[in-house]
Write a structure and sequence with these properties.
alpha/beta
């Protein structure tokens, strides 16, 4: 019981000021000694309620943050994906949304679609490209309306290089 009072005075009193185990050990080593004192001071300080409330938790990230390389120009590389089906259906019968996001500026575009045909997909892309210009690379998933011969021929005529990816991350964030 006497040890507890000594630890309390050395750590929690006005003079102790919750300075942590190391400084409490430094303060007590000149005035007190008993076997296992360092271990008891560390245990006392780590169980101190006031210290736990104020303690700054520093965690080391396991994966270093690296900059993401972006294209040099807007609409040079775009991500394209589909949201399907939208509920409720719009008053004009649109059930799907074609999403496009520029990798340079993160500018999103969305076009409502009534069906998921390759023709409607190409028309929606043409509508966007008429405003933004034709991108060099189009990153998309393996949805059937992107992999059809019509869509591939359409992109070939435009001179855009399709890249297929399992997920298009930016589109998922916009949704």
């Amino acid at each position: 019981m006497r040890k507890r009072k000594i630890l309390n005075n050395a750590h929690e009193s006005v003079f102790g000021a919750h300075l942590g185990a190391h400084k409490t050990i430094q303060r007590m080593k000149f005035s007190f000694y008993w076997p296992g004192i360092v271990k008891e001071i560390k245990a006392y300080c780590s169980s101190c309620y006031g210290c736990q409330l104020r303690k700054v938790i520093r965690s080391v990230d396991k994966i270093p943050i690296t900059p993401v390389s972006r294209p040099e120009l807007p609409f040079q590389v775009v991500n394209v994906d589909l949201i399907d089906p939208v509920d409720p259906v719009s008053s004009q019968g649109h059930k799907y949304i074609l999403c496009l996001m520029d990798q340079h500026s993160r500018w999103p575009e969305a076009i409502p679609l009534k069906s998921l045909t390759a023709k409607s997909t190409c028309e929606a892309l043409l509508e966007i490209f008429s405003r933004t210009g034709i991108p060099e690379v189009i990153v998309m998933d393996n949805a059937t309306n992107f992999t059809t011969s019509l869509t591939q021929e359409f992109l070939k005529i435009l001179g855009a290089c399709p890249r297929f990816q399992h997920l298009t991350i930016q589109k998922k964030r916009v949704n």
